[in-house]
Amino acid sequence: MGFLDTLLGRTKPVQPKLDDLFALPSAAITLEAGAGFTPTGSGSVCFRPVEGRSFADVQKDVTDLLDMSAGKEGALPVEVSKDDYGFTWVVDSRMSSEIDALVTDLHAVNSALVDNGFGPQLLCTLVAFRDPEERRLALIYLFKRGTFYPFAPLSGEKRDNALELQVKGAIGPDLKWEQDLGRWFPVWGAPGL
Amino acid sequence: MAARTRYAPDRGLTARMTATMFLLGLVFVAFVALIVGLMSHYGASSALIVFVAVVVGGGFAIGSLFYSDKIALRTAGAVEVTPEQAPELHGVVDRLCALADMPKPRVAIARSPIPNAFATGRSADKAVLCVTDSLLARLNKDELEGVIAHEMSHVAHKDVQVMTIASFLAIIAALLIRFSFYGELFGGGGRGRGGNNNGGALPILAILMLVSIVVYAISFLLIRMLSRYRELAADRSGALLTGQPSALKSALIKVSEGMNRIPTRDLRAAEPLNAFFFAPAMKLNARSSLSTIFSTHPSLERRLEELDKVQQQLSKAG
């Protein structure tokens, strides 16, 4: 935000960065080799809906689009749910080997929102992983920063910080990591995780 | 990026705020010019008074800027809370920070029967956000999110810094009024020793006092006006951030209702913090136009009107 904007008290809503998301498929391979986690095939996009008709229309178009492409390729239809904080999650499920297609789907949701002028409403994208011991892990992409962070929930709203840091080390420079640990916020009960 | 945006700035508000700040700057320049003129005309006898006022005033301003968070938390009786102690509040703040791409402020809760919130701190990194327990009890999640988005907008707009700088002039003017008043009371002894500037001291102090009073009055009104515009700007940015102007509107209504139900004795205790609050804790007689000029916050009706504009802007089709 520029000096003049500060002085005049007008915030420019932050536009999301979408492109760094495509680093995920290669990072997933590194993660499997280094820590044994594989993609579950499900991923989601989280955004803050805007009240009123025009956003509802856009949201419907997006889910219709994904459902259509899902019908063709034998994937499951998308699920839309709302969390406790009023944020909407669009969950896309594919085969666990189809992480490229999953990322493409998620990108389609993101760019549809951006194209319709709702880019500032995008919060994060989440891609879920599991290891053979059934430990849960998500790699979360922060749209406004263009960075990733790991999130490993345990039961009862606790998180496995050691595992998160291990995953970050295992993937290394394949992903642009969020350096400010204060922004690694927990997403308890995120759909698709 | 070629993507179109639905978030155009409010030109009217920008223009009014610019005009207010321009006037404040004009008063400041006129004040400095007058003092320099007075001093060169009457000699340096009053230079010391002005110098002391600037140093003390500057000290006040810098001190209040640096300790704003601690002073405000102490005055409000607020306690910082960890994510474990207040997971839901932290969850709301986390999400809004990620949406707005801001560093996360510290979060505090104050025990108070007044449903309210404030944010302070000299920079976004040092910011602290405080809500009262009755606000948490009275608002639902969407409304709480609206209030917090409003406060985060204050942080993003650097309102603490802007208002401190804006108040600098008024602080110096107020100090000069006081100093020249005492100077006139006790000025007799000093004049005897100096000898050569005899007779010059008394009128210059009177003129200085008069000028300072006028400057103080004008800058006081301008600062209040600026504060009201910045509240509207924070409402607007907050509503755009969450995309839910209606939730902010209903929070505003609930909070102002809560204010009116509380006895005035409690409200006066919170008065020094008024400028940072989400809604003003102390109200002058609500309907008179005088109260509008003097208050730090715009009227509820005005704020709701502005939020209606945001709502229309967001729901515009296409």
Characterize the structure shown.
The complex is a heterodimer of chains A (193) and B (318). Chain A contains 5 helices and 8 strands, in the order ααβαββαβββββα. Chain A is of the alpha+beta class and 193 residues long. Chain A has one domain (14-174). Chain A has a 6-stranded antiparallel beta sheet. Chain A has a two-stranded antiparallel ribbon with strand order 7-8. In chain A, a hairpin with a 4-residue loop joins β5 (136-142) and β6. In chain A, α2 packs across α5 and α3 (53-73) packs antiparallel against α4 (99-115). Chain A is globular. The model of chain A has no long low-confidence stretch (mean pLDDT 87). Chain B is mostly helical and 318 residues long. Chain B has a domain at 75-159 and 227-315: Metalloproteases ("zincins"), catalytic domain (Zincin-like), CATH 3.30.2010. Chain B has 12 helices and 4 strands. Chain B has helices spanning 11-42, 47-66, 68-76, 87-100, 133-138, 141-156, 159-194, 201-242, 245-261, 264-269, 289-294, 300-315; strands at residues 78-80, 106-110, 117-120, 128-132. In chain B, strands 1-2-4-3 form a 4-stranded mixed beta sheet, with helices on both faces. In chain B, a hairpin with a 7-residue loop joins β3 and β4. In chain B, α9 (245-261) packs antiparallel against α12. Mean pLDDT of chain B is 79; it is low at 188-199 and 282-288. At the A-B interface, α1 and α3 of A face α1, α4, α6, α8 and α9 of B.
